[in-house]
């Protein structure tokens, strides 16, 4: 009867699987302090709770302790998000455009390439079926586009900052589509990376 274990074998197996508590304490004393560290030990040690820590242990100190977050931490356009608004989001697409002349195309004089780094404007096409141009309400910010109609709403975080005052929009009645052209704000364009 090799398949069945004897009582002695079962007791030995039980002793292996559940060691005595005294053995565990001895093992913990032999372990180095670094090995006993856990995720809570990462970073600078916390100040004792009894002491008054005026400097603060973190690099970020809030200006007003009653504020949950600072204005810089809130994503632009978050106040336009209305979860109770049942209007659907219309179909849209974003196309990056660049001005290319013959000197760029044939001679490569301006060092432009087809990448998005060389694009100078952004075209946002929004399909708005059964909508009139007079019903549109459009608000463009540096990184956010807000479009509202009686049937649709679109709150779009733009992939690149834009010049909000220099853009233009046109409604194409035949296609029932709004085209918004926005020049991109690229402050680092004056620096040559090559």
TrEMBL record:
GO terms for biological process: axonemal dynein complex assembly; flagellated sperm motility. Residues 15-59 are annotated as: Disordered. One of its GO terms (cellular component) is cytoplasm. InterPro entries: DNAAF6 (IPR026697), PIH1D1/2/3_CS-like (IPR041442). Residues 89-184 form the PIH1D1/2/3 CS-like domain. One of its GO terms (molecular function) is protein-folding chaperone binding. It comes from the Eukaryota. Transmembrane segments: none annotated. PANTHER family: DYNEIN AXONEMAL ASSEMBLY FACTOR 6 (PTHR21083:SF0), TWISTER (PTHR21083). Belongs to the PIH1 family. This is PIH1D1/2/3 CS-like domain-containing protein.
